Structure formats: C-alpha cells, structure tokens
Amino acid sequence: RVAAELKYKLRHFRECFYIPKIRDLPPVDLSLVNKDENAIYFLGNSLGLQPKMVKTYLEEELDKWAKIAAYGHEVGKRPWITGDESIVGLMKDIVGANEKEIALMNALTVNLHLLMLSFFKPTPKRYKILLEAKAFPSDHYAIESQLQLHGLNTEESMRMIKPREGEETLRIEDILEVIEKEGDSIAVILFSGVHFTIDSTGCYVGFDLAHAVGNVELYLHDWGVDFACWCSYKYLNAGAGGIAGAFVHEKHAHTIKPAFFNCV
C-alpha cells in the first residue's frame, strides 16, 4: 500500500522528462513491440533522462552570451562565475551535508584524485588502501595511480575484499574483521555507495557515490563520512559532462590541507 501511494505521489515527475520512443532506439524486433510506445528506461545508472527544461535553460544562457558576452559572468539569473554556488544549496539536501562541506567542480575521477591526494598520506606503518575487489574500474585505476605516485607496491598496498563464495554483496562483519585485523596498516578505506557506518580506528573512510547520489537517501555529515565524490549525469540527470561534486566533512577543516586548489 505504501509503495502504491508513493508511486501515485511521484508519478507527475514522469512528465518532466523526455522518455525515448522505441522507434528511435537502436534496432529491435519491432514485431514484438509497439514502436510508438515509450521505452522502459533502466539505464539511469549510466545516463539520466533529459529534463524537458534543459533546452530552455541552455537557450537562456546562449542568448545571454550572445547579447552581453563577458558581462554574463556577473549578471543574470545564473551568473557564470558563481554557477556552482547557485546550486550548492540544492545539493546539500541531496547528500545530507552542510554547504561549506561541498564543492561542485571537475569530473568524478578528478575529484577522487584530489581527495586521495589530500587524505592518503602513507607512512611506513599505515600505507594500505582498503577497497572492494570489484570496485568500479576508474576507482581501481585511480587507487593504483595514487599508490604508484607514492612509490608503493600495489599488490602489497591495495587490500581488496570480496563477497563470500556464492554471494554478491559484502557482509558488514567481514569488513569489520579486516579492519580489526589490519586497521593499523590501513590509511584509507574507499567503497562505492554507502555500505556501512563504522568507527574507522584511525583510517579515513571515503565513498564513490556515483550510483548513490539522487538514488538513495544520504546523510554524509551525520554519518561522519570523511570524504566522498560523485557525478551528476546519472541519477541527477545533469547530462553527459555534467559537473561533479566532492565532500569533505567539516571536522577536517583545520586538519586536512587540500593538495591542490581548484581555480577558474
């Protein structure tokens, strides 16, 4: 009953998006379907649907650019020079954070590198990064790059954990067991999505939220997450190339110094 009521309350949002018609998609057996029907879209994890207002917003900005050129940086409904600041207030509610904890910039993996450069400070004793064995390829490559940057052996420093045989997801108790046994040597824990809440025993805990932002409720500040990054072209429907985001908990405001500053 609850699900049915929620579906009814949300159904009007469907009209806010363009849904591809079957006839416009790559070849399918049209004898089995009505080619004039909307497709059933399950690819929001790769690219969100286009909001119908996108064209209007783009045309407004193109018109401003044509008419006033560089003055568009500082005037209009959406001054370009503060474009990211105009939507931070919306983003904070989506990820459950304070505005000062969020930066909207770059792309997902660029932000992950910047965060890792700031949080991953290996020492002879604490030098490992804990991650999922089947981490998203770009995360895996980024971690390899960070380890190589510090001259570390990836096989020794990349501590990967995988689900039990015959299972698809990690068990919390298995993650805790690894941290209990090896926590003194782990510098950073990086997972995708939000799997668990944990006292990291000295490890920094970060998340790649590419498939979580806009898809599940998040409370990054209240959960005490150290850092996180995400993209906006999936469940936030920003479109290919949409600006990404990064989060650093305010508890690190005076203890973690950014490795690089993002400049215009």
Provide the fold topology.
Layout: H1 2-10, H2 54-68, H3 85-95, E1 102-104, H4 108-119, E2 128-132, H5 137-149, H6 154-157, E3 158-161, H7 172-182, E4 186-192, E5 204-208, H8 220-223, E6 227-230, E7 245-248
Parallel strand pairs: 2-3, 2-4, 4-5, 5-6
Antiparallel strand pairs: 1-7, 6-7
Protein name: Kynureninase
GO cellular component, one term: cytoplasm
Keywords: Pyridoxal phosphate
What does this structure look like?
The structure is a single chain. 30% of the residues lie in helices and 12% in strands. The longest helix has 15 residues. The radius of gyration is 21 Å and the shape is globular. This is Kynureninase. One of its GO terms (biological process) is NAD+ biosynthetic process. Keywords: Pyridoxal phosphate. GO terms for molecular function: kynureninase activity; pyridoxal phosphate binding.
Sum this structure up briefly.
The chain is of the alpha/beta class. It has 8 helices and 7 strands, in the order αααβαβααβαββαββ. The protein has a domain at 91-252: Type I PLP-dependent aspartate aminotransferase-like (Major domain) (Aspartate Aminotransferase, domain 2), CATH 3.40.640.
